[in-house]
């Protein structure tokens, strides 16, 4: 602000005045560095963290407007920057299973002050599988289900399985892979894979579920071919396709001829002119489900 100061002086009965202008103002500076800061990762959080900030000892004579937080991977990757009006800054867009450090500066009308750096903190890793739900066939080698840990380069992982796999399947604790040839029909069963991941000096875990059921394989298409004959003569139907060792049975399902019949050998006769319609069924066995023509 600018002020004018005027002096009035009586000199031997004569009044004289003199004046001068004075400008007064208040100066301020940037804040000092935040007193402390720390990174915190919630249980299960893979891409977010919270930076807790202790306010600077001095705000530089002007209130603090915001804090600028820059979170940088220790090993490799891109930094993430966010601004917070409070001393708790939420950071998003981080990578799973990655070590970070954060630098924090306080801002006021004079600008940004010096920074403080947190100690290292680590986001939780992620875990995915090549298939989350699958139905396999008895006697057929399954396509292995592989596990992938989502984390920074250079981590080491071991795996554990909770639950019981269908008979014939196995779990590799070094790779997290489920493989094998199922031997028994099994209703849907869910197992949990847990990865223990060493990231720097921190060991973090991640889990995912896999649901597996096992059924009999379908047979190849079962076909049935007939023919024509005189009334009273026999036509033997011919079966093609199908799989496995199951027995074949026949049943009459319709037709226009009178007196249609079919025996266990697939021999068809009638007492009148027209058609006889026959269906064949091949029973299932230990590997294949039943099939009908």
> How large a portion of the residues is in β-strands, by DSSP E?
over 45%
Low-confidence residue ranges: none
Shape: elongated
Task: Average the pLDDT over all residues and give the rounded result.
Answer: 95
Give the H and E element order.
Answer: EEEEEEEEEEEEEEEEEEEEEEEEEE
Verbal overview:
The relative contact order is 0.11. The chain starts with a strand and ends with a strand. The radius of gyration is 41 Å and the shape is elongated. It is built from no helices and 26 strands. The strands form nine sheets. Strands 5, 6, 8, 9 and 10 form a five-stranded antiparallel sheet that branches. A four-stranded mixed sheet has the order 12-18-17-14, with no helix packed on it. A three-stranded antiparallel sheet has the order 3-4-7, with no helix packed on it. The mean pLDDT is 95. 0% of the residues lie in helices and 53% in strands. β3 and β4 form a beta hairpin. It has 293 residues and is mainly β.
Annotation keywords:
elongated; 26 strands; four-stranded mixed beta sheet; five-stranded antiparallel beta sheet; 293 residues; mainly beta
């Amino acid at each position: 602000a600018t002020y004018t100061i005027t002096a009035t002086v009586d000199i031997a009965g004569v009044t004289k005045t003199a004046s001068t202008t004075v400008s007064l103002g208040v100066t301020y500076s940037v804040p000092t560095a935040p007193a402390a800061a720390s990174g915190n990762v919630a249980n299960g959080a893979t891409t977010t963290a919270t930076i807790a900030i202790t306010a600077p000892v001095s705000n530089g004579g002007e209130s603090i407007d915001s804090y600028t937080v820059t979170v940088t991977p220790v090993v490799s990757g891109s930094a993430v920057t966010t601004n917070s009006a409070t001393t708790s800054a939420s950071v998003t867009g981080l990578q799973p299973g990655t070590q970070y450090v954060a630098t924090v500066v306080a801002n006021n009308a004079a600008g940004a002050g010096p920074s403080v750096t947190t100690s290292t903190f680590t986001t939780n890793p992620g875990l995915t599988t090549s298939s989350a739900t699958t139905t396999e066939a008895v006697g057929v080698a399954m396509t292995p289900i592989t596990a992938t840990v989502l984390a920074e380069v250079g981590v080491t992982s071991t795996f554990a399985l909770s639950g019981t796999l269908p008979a014939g399947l196995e779990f590799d604790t070094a790779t997290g892979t489920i493989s094998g040839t199922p031997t028994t029909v099994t209703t849907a069963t869910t197992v949990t894979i847990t990865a223990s991941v060493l990231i720097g000096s921190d060991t973090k875990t991640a889990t995912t579920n896999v649901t597996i059921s096992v059924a009999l394989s379908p047979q190849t298409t079962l076909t049935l071919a007939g023919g024509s004959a005189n009334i009273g003569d026999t036509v033997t139907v011919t079966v093609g396709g199908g799989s496995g060792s199951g027995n074949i049975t026949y049943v009459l399902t319709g037709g226009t001829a009178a007196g249609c019949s079919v025996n266990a050998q697939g021999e068809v006769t009638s007492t009148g002119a027209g058609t006889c319609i026959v269906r064949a069924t091949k029973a299932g066995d230990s590997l294949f489900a039943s099939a009908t023509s």
